[in-house]
UniProtKB/TrEMBL annotation:
Keywords: Cell membrane, Membrane, Transmembrane, Transmembrane helix, Transport. It comes from the Bacteria. Belongs to the binding-protein-dependent transport system permease family. Its main location: membrane. Pfam families: BPD_transp_1, BPD_transp_1_N. This is Peptide/nickel transport system permease protein. PANTHER family: D,D-DIPEPTIDE TRANSPORT SYSTEM PERMEASE PROTEIN DDPB-RELATED, DIPEPTIDE TRANSPORT SYSTEM PERMEASE PROTEIN DPPB-RELATED. It comes from Pseudoduganella namucuonensis.
Length: 340
């Protein structure tokens, strides 16, 4: 019974901290957005509008009120599930996010899969050969992938694989010839083209997503491989590893069945945070590749001073990270035997 109440108290505490975090994020974003040197009213009426037109537009947007009144009104609308109307598109912000977010989810999911498939084995390989040539090569690759600006990789990728070799599909999610011909069922173009049975469109969408996904995957691979190497080195120095080797177990068994199993919980957290970072941090990739996703929508909203859209995007990012942290905690409960 005590354990039950302890868990209930922990859940209440976690929920409260989550709400406080999201509220703080909204407060910070709202007030920073209001002092930005971008006037959303001018974006609507134009720089040549007279004073009366400007004041009328400001009153219609509620921007003639004190900041605390504007924020209180925003919270009231948010409590009713209304994120406001986007100045960029004229649509409800929630509808815009539902429209653009699947493109980012598709890109980030493929990138994190590639990052995990490459990063984890490379990290294990480097740790098992500490101080040797293989370790140095992996560390150099990881350092280059993590420190080199992602937009530079994007531009070089377009130059080599699109302009010179013609392997990549170029900008956008799919060629213009297929645009609007695929029924949107899930919003994930790779899945929707398969559901429609259009193999030519599927192949074309693969060609378009492959390059940006590989570049994002390289960035996440660098981070995941470094963390995997660090976790593995900590485990390989433990006494139980020495005991396993003394017993005559093969090196592969020592590494994968013993050391790697003990870093799985830590890796789950790293992968979850890396995935969250890809979902909200693919702005530069989406800009370079004209990828019609969440990052490009947020960038255009910021340039226009469309704070309703910016606030909606920031709130979504906050919810994503909080949710991923909660999922990581839940996975800790499942995979860590010490939690049972």
């Amino acid at each position: 019974m005590k354990a039950f109440w302890a868990r209930a108290g922990a859940m209440r505490s976690r929920l409260l901290s989550t709400l406080v975090t999201l509220l703080g994020l909204l407060v910070l974003t709202f007030f920073v957005g209001r002092v930005m040197p971008i006037d959303p009213v001018l974006s609507i009426v134009g720089p040549d509008a007279d004073a009366s037109t400007y004041q009328e537009a400001a009153a219609r947007l509620g921007l003639d009120q004190p900041l605390w009144v504007q924020f209180g009104r925003y919270l009231g609308e948010l409590a009713q599930g209304n994120l406001g109307t986007s100045l960029l598109t004229g649509n409800a912000v929630s509808a815009d996010i539902v429209r653009v977010f699947p493109a980012t989810v598709e890109l980030a999911t493929l990138a994190i899969v590639l990052g995990v498939l490459a990063g984890v084995p490379l990290g294990v390989f480097a740790a098992s050969r500490r101080g040797r040539l293989g370790d140095h090569v992996v560390r150099v690759i990881s350092l280059a992938g993590h420190s080199t600006p992602v937009f530079w990789f994007a531009m070089m990728g377009l130059l080599v694989f699109y302009a010179w070799l013609g392997w990549a599909g170029g900008s956008g999610r799919i060629a213009l010839a297929y645009d609007g011909t695929i029924p949107s069922v899930t919003g994930l173009l790779l899945i929707d083209t398969l559901l429609a049975g259009d193999w030519d469109a599927f192949t074309n969408s693969v060609k378009h997503i492959a390059l940006p996904a590989c570049i994002l995957g390289l960035h996440s691979m660098a981070y995941i491989s470094r963390m995997t190497r660090s976790f593995m080195l900590a485990q390989l120095s433990q006494e139980y590893i020495l005991t396993a080797r003394v017993k005559g177990l093969s090196e592969a068994s020592v590494i994968w069945r013993h050391a790697f199993r003990n870093i799985l919980v830590q890796l789950l957290t790293i992968v979850a945070l890396a995935y969250g970072g890809l979902l909200e941090g693919a702005v530069l990739i989406e800009t370079v590749f004209a990828w019609p996703g969440f990052g490009q929508y947020l960038t255009n909203s910021l340039l226009l001073g469309d704070m309703n859209s910016v606030m909606g995007c920031v709130l979504l990012v906050g919810v994503i990270f909080v949710s991923l942290n909660l999922v990581s905690d839940a996975l800790y409960q499942v995979f860590d035997p010490r939690m049972h």
